[in-house]
Please model this.
Amino acid sequence: MTDPSVTAELLEKYGGPAPRYTSYPTALDWKDDVGPDDYPELLRSAGEREGPLSLYVHVPFCEKRCLFCGCNVKITRDREWGRKYVELLRREAETAGRNLGGREVHEIHWGGGTPTWLAPDELTALWDAVGSAFSVSPDVEAAVEVDPRVTSDEQLRLLAHLGFRRLSLGIQDFDPLVQATVQRVQSVEDTARTVAVARDAGFRSVNVDLMYGLPRQTRDGFQTTLDHVVALRPDRVALFGYAHVPWLKKHHRALDTAVAPTPAEKLVIFKDAVQAFTSAGWVFLGLDHFALTGDPLACALADGTLNRNFMGYTTRPGDDTIGLGVSAIGEVGGAYVQNARELTDWQDAVRDRGVAVVRGHRLNAEDRLRRDAVMRIMCHGRLRWADLDAAHGPDTASLLGPERAALASLAEDGLVHLNEDSVQVTGTGRVFLRQVAAVFDRYLRDRDGQDAFSRVI
Model:
């Protein structure tokens, strides 16, 4: 549960922009000291390490643009794109797998865009390409994002047959006025049917995405959405705050933020959601994620093994993620990497050399220390200084001296409990978890502004 003592003053002070920390440093702060010539060696280095490996595949295609979307997508109905894209993904996967060696893949996630934009034979070809290029564990945890508006029963059954067991689908808000405003009209009935067919086909876990802060959204309207979602009983729920960044996403200009909830109204909606889910059997993992009691994520939170990577919260401890597809981000051999963001650039790079990495960041010792601190806050809501010393050496106190002082201010405001040995995030602090983690972000402290990030509330 969140603490109800969030005042207007705290909202004003801590409700502003901050990173979501699926990585540290964030992609905006990478030094860009990694390029395509470095990537094969990074893969070989990753192949020599032990532990589980994750794989992310980005499929950018959508038939229509949702105006709230912040993802890298291509809007098209030209079906020729599917065949060409899968063939290039096969080449990219073969290049990565050849350099990586036999290290097992334990986690696969297909995201987008809309992976089910691909035809059934293309979905099969993509799965086969991954299976032939990498050593995939028999117990792989495979997840796929789908759009109920364009996903057929045949596709759901095929995906389950291929080996996918986790399904993720967007809802955002069931209010018809909000849906019309953001140009994503999706009925409760279609969504419920998708969930039912997926479970019948063999999917063991269903995740739904909601979004608060959208134009025309109201407390009462969103409460109705919460009631519908509770009735669906998804295993996991992600409750994202809408990030209005028209300077980065031009289509956001079509949305009128003057009719969107104020920060104070958004906080009320957020609290309503926490109350609705936690009272109905979900565990609040922190940030804006929930999992049913007994779900592996809830168990990982309880036993202190919850992790976080580019795909969000996970039970897997692996440090390396291979990214395939346009704009895909990965972490290999102690460095972050990202593929070309433009589809034509990605295509040309994969055709020419089998590699589309264009930028990256090698983590130094201080990056690793600060990442550890950030992720302990994001995943566990606490950290012990002795744990940082044990993992990174006895000089962490001197390196993080300013951060300890900054935490004292957060303690005065009731966001953390602070003592000589540790820092513990409070109920109030969980609402502002990203701001607590941001204390350890040296890059954020040194940059001029935070406008590239979404508001915490």
Remarks:
- The first helix runs from residue 8 to 14.
- The chain has two domains: 1-26+364-457, 37-324.
- Residues 24 and 337 are 13 Å apart (CA to CA).
